[in-house]
Amino acid sequence: MAVPVIDIQGLWRVYESAAGLTTVLRGVSLQVERGEFLTIMGPSGSGKSTLMNTLGCLDRPTAGSYRLEGVETSELADDDLAYVRSTRLGFVFQSFNLMPKNTVLRNVMLPLVYCNVPARERELRAWKALKAVALPDEYYLHRANELSGGQMQRVAIARALVNDPAIILADEPTGNLDTATGELVMNTFRRLQQRGKTIVLITHDAEVAAWGDRTVHIRDGRLLSDEQERAVRARLAAGEKDVAQAVGAPGDAPADGPAADPAAETAVLAASPAKEATSL
Predict the structure, then answer these.
(1) How many Cβ atoms sit within 10 Å of the Cβ of residue 177?
(2) Tens-digit pLDDT profile for residues 222-248
(3) Up-side HSE of residue 145: CA atoms within 13 Å toward CB?
(4) What values do phi and psi take at 252, rounded to 5?
(5) Per-residue pLDDT tens for 87-104?
(6) Best CA proximity match to 207, nearest among 168, 240, 174
(7) Are 48 and 42 contacting, i.e. CB atoms less than 8 angstroms apart?
(8) What are 168-206's pLDDT values in tens digits?
(9) What is the mean pLDDT of residues 129-156?
(10) Percentage of residues in the chain with pLDDT exceeding 90?
(11) pTM
(12) What is the DSSP string of the chain?
């Protein structure tokens, strides 16, 4: 049986603030198969950015297990995690995060500089990545600030591809784009999936989420299936004010894996000293 490329079991994330400890992820369990296109939907404050940071090895969970391509990430040192981020993961952001005065080609080559790739090979790999996102080559020597929003996002996707990662993590990649341009970007992700890439994409837009093979929802730090999310919305629309109660009772099964329960949360909080928590 194939090992899931992402395998999260019972994941918790607790932060410290001036008000005390805040639980952002509550016993999240999720599996993503190699080559799958998964979309994650959730409102602001639901925990989706924290989940994405954890998937990207940018943040360590307070408790639980995260196995990436079969490797338990909690056992990796910081240098090892940096290597994983630079070679196995590609990141795409809503705000593009390009160097505005650098050319398109230099923007895409940038991750290779930190991997000590020779200059000629950097250029060839950047050229190939830009071809993969269907950006016409007449733009390669343009500065990033001379491009349209859709073109900048395709450059950002090319930069995420340049190290040939197994997994692409995209956080609201169409959030700053109009509908037609967003569709072009989503078609780019679809082509990448067809070439064997695993895509995990966060969005608040149901039309964007529909591009995925599967959609899970996150609310109050818990993952929900489509059916559970519909039930939550129906109960809230009916006037139920307790959102936590609407998400489900402790025994209700989430999108993947067993549900978290209050006793588990109490145990995690008790075992989370303030010095190990990161400030909000």
Answers:
(1) 20
(2) 999 888 888 888 888 887 766 555 555
(3) 4
(4) -70, 135
(5) 999 999 888 999 999 999
(6) 174
(7) yes
(8) 999 999 988 889 889 999 999 999 999 999 999 999 899
(9) 94
(10) 68
(11) 0.83
(12) -PPPSEEEEEEEEEEEETTEEEEEEEEEEEEE-TT-EEEEE--TTSSHHHHHHHHTTSS--SEEEEEETTEEGGGS-HHHHHHHHHHTEEEEETT----TTSBHHHHHHHHHHTTT--HHHHHHHHHHHHHHTT--GGGTTSBGGGS-HHHHHHHHHHHHHTT--SEEEEESTTTTS-HHHHHHHHHHHHHHHHTT-EEEEEES-HHHHTTSSEEEEEETTEEE-HHHHHHHHHHHHTT---HHHHH--TTS--SSSPPP-HHHHHHHHHT--GGGSPB-
Sequence letter at residue 168? I
Instruction: Decide which of 246 and 131 is more confident.
Output: 131
How many CB atoms sit inside 10 A of residue 226's CB?
14
